[in-house]
Amino acid sequence: MPLPKCEICDDDFSSEDGDHSPRNLKCCHTLCEGCIKKLLNYSRIVCPFCREPTEVPGNNIKSLHKNFSLIQVIKTTLVEEAEARIIPKCKAHPYNLAEFFCVNPDCSSNDKLMCRTCEDFGVHKGHAKYLLITRIENSGNSLQKAISDLQKKLRDIDQNVEELKKAQTLFNENGELFQKKKNQITNFYSKLREKVNEREKEALSELKDVARTARVNNTKSLLTLMQVRSIYDELISEAKELLKKTSATSFREVEAILNRSNAHIMSQEKIFEPNPFENIKVNIRPIEIPMASIEYCAKPSNSVPRSSGESDPYAAMKQLDVKLLRIIH
After folding, report:
1. Which are the contacts of 16, defined by CB distance < 8 A and separation ≥ 6?
2. Could you give the CA distance from residue 122 to residue 57 in angstroms, rounded to a whole number?
3. CA-to-CA distance for 43 and 66, rounded, in angstroms?
4. 317 three-class SS
5. How many Cβ atoms sit within 10 Å of the Cβ of residue 231?
6. Which of 33, 283, 305, 327 is most buried per CB count within 10 Å?
7. Domain count, the chain
């Protein structure tokens, strides 16, 4: 069905606002806005068909009523033309549009498209169906949603690409993140070395103090032992001299020497032993490692959430942090 035309310019009327929008004159004849503009003369239009005048206050063409009946005809015609372009002809009845799609599970026909004649008299008589145009519209809506979802995914991918590029720059040896982590590691082990050196000095100093004390104690013990040894030597010499005597009076001297010897032996039951070097104990204090010098590498707060399977560009640096924390513990 052709679109209705303006009888003056012979252009198709339009359902949209503009020069081709249909406007009614007082006489009920309809012209397009473009022709009305040309015929407008001092706020008045004379109908080219019946010569009846129509007043247009202030030359405002919009004050003329639209021909809504004609606009509805235009819209219906456009829909029918669109359907005719989309919906194919029925193969069994080519003079009809295949407006329906057969959904009957027991249908034996290979061609599921059907027209009204097929529905009433043909192989699809009494079969369940749905409007083909509805299915096409639903498919179009589904495609639009799929396109929208894919476009959103593309935006996410683009953001991830930008983040990866940024991460590549940061991981470069001259990059900000690499240098930051390098400084953290250097500072950490520098402080660790300072602590180790400090504890080493403390331990060596304590070792010297312990050794000095041991030497003093050993010297005292040595002097005491030398004195005791001198007494023992004297007693041994006296005992040997008495062995050479055979007089009766010597027995009293022997008894006196034995008493002195026993007394010294009893008083010296605890033998003075030197303090062996391997028994020297040095108190080595534990090292307090500066935990705060290693920071965990978190990804930027504005990063795009990733679905399962997507790689984290900061994973390698996080693994390094974990290794460092293990070393600390």
Report:
1. none
2. 61
3. 18
4. helix
5. 13
6. 33
7. 2
Beta-strand ranges (E) seen in the chain are 22-24, 30-32, 44-46, 53-55, 100-102, 113-114, 129-131
Side chain identity, residue 254 = V
pLDDT tens sequence across 220-274: 888 888 888 888 888 888 788 777 775 655 667 777 777 777 776 666 655 555 5
Q: Domain boundary at 65, 86, 107, which?
A: 86
Question: CB within 8 A of 80, min separation 6: which ones?
Answer: 1
pTM, full prediction: 0.34
The answer to whether residue 294 is domain-embedded is: no
Residue 12, C-beta contacts closer than 8 angstroms, at least 6 positions apart = 3, 4, 5, 6, 20
Residue type, 274: P
Domain hosting residue 1, numbered range: 1-86
CA distance 315 to 321: 10
> Does some domain include residue 321?
no
Residue 20 DSSP label: T
Q: Looking at 17, 52, 86, which one is the last position of a domain?
A: 86
